[in-house]
């Protein structure tokens, strides 16, 4: 099955970002992708954290959700909507939410980011907890490819990548593919992005597809990019360093089976 990670350099205007996302999703579909995954915050990278509040949507309705549903239906493709801000019961909080749409345009899964990024090196300060309400539920969904093969897909977002227990739980649930839509900072991404992605693939014997924000944004933030597809042996199959684009590759069911048979580490676990 061919898949694509969509890399963006999202700006401050929602509609401009949706137009950019649509063009990249069309590119992925024309290239034969059955699944395309957008990056975290694909719909907005605001000047300040609270800008998300103005764009929050109710679960099941809104401009961004209609865009994702309509595009999945039009392109006959599975689309994972990076993240978008969904309403909570608190007026000053949103959930940072991944929604999955199948080729009919139906929303089949929702994951609210569990781990909230905090970083302060004296020059850069990020604190997602000021605006985002954390989720608490692990989510997988099943994707049936056009050839009939069913893939179990585990959802995660960005900072989740630093918590291997989340991915091991996905592995225990049978995940074949792990998705990591992200907006890693240039500082943390340069240091840790690739090694963490490859580690999650190797230790869980699964493919990892990680679309990212990659470039200098209107708000001055510099994101690391390097969207990539990693195979279960930890080999980087495709990547793009900076700038918008599509990173495409093939998930090979036989390769997955062979790696798991040759090194059945998941069956050798001793600790829970």
Automatic annotation (TrEMBL):
Entry coiled-coil feature ranges: none
The entry's keywords: Acyltransferase, Hydrolase, Transferase
Domain CN hydrolase per the UniProt entry, residue ranges: 1-257
One Pfam family it belongs to: CN_hydrolase
InterPro entries given in the database record: C-N_Hydrolase (IPR003010), C-N_Hydrolase_sf (IPR036526), Nit1/2_C-N_Hydrolase (IPR045254), UPF0012_CS (IPR001110)
Keyword Hydrolase attributed: yes
Keyword Ribonucleoprotein: no
Gene Ontology molecular function, alphabetical: acyltransferase activity; hydrolase activity, acting on carbon-nitrogen (but not peptide) bonds, in linear amides
Family as reported in the entry's similarity comment: Belongs to the carbon-nitrogen hydrolase superfamily. NIT1/NIT2 family.
Protein name: Acyltransferase
């Amino acid at each position: 099955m061919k898949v694509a990670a969509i890399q963006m350099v999202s700006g401050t205007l929602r509609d401009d970002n949706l137009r950019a996302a649509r063009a990249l999703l069309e590119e992925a579909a024309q290239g034969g992708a059955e699944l395309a995954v957008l990056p975290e915050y694909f719909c907005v990278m605001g000047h300040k954290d609270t800008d998300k509040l103005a764009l929050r949507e109710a679960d099941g309705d809104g401009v961004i959700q209609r865009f994702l549903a309509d595009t999945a239906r039009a392109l006959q493709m599975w689309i994972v909507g990076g993240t978008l801000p969904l309403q909570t019961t608190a007026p000053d909080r949103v959930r940072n939410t991944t929604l999955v749409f199948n080729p009919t345009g139906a929303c089949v899964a929702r994951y609210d980011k569990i781990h909230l990024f905090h970083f302060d090196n004296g020059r850069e300060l990020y604190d997602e907890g000021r605006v985002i309400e954390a989720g608490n539920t692990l989510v997988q969904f099943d994707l049936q490819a056009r050839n009939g093969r069913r893939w179990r897909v585990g959802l995660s977002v960005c900072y989740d990548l630093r918590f291997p227990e989340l991915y091991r739980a996905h592995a225990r649930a049978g995940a074949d593919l792990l998705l990591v839509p992200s907006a890693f900072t240039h500082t943390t991404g340069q240091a840790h992005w690739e090694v963490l992605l490859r580690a999650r693939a190797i230790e869980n014997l699964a493919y990892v597809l990680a679309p990212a924000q990659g470039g200098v944004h209107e708000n001055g933030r510099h994101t690391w990019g390097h969207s990539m597809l990693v195979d279960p042996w930890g080999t980087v199959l495709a990547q793009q360093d900076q700038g918008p684009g599509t990173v495409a590759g093939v998930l090979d069911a036989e390769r997955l089976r062979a790696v798991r048979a040759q090194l059945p580490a998941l069956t050798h676990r001793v600790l829970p």
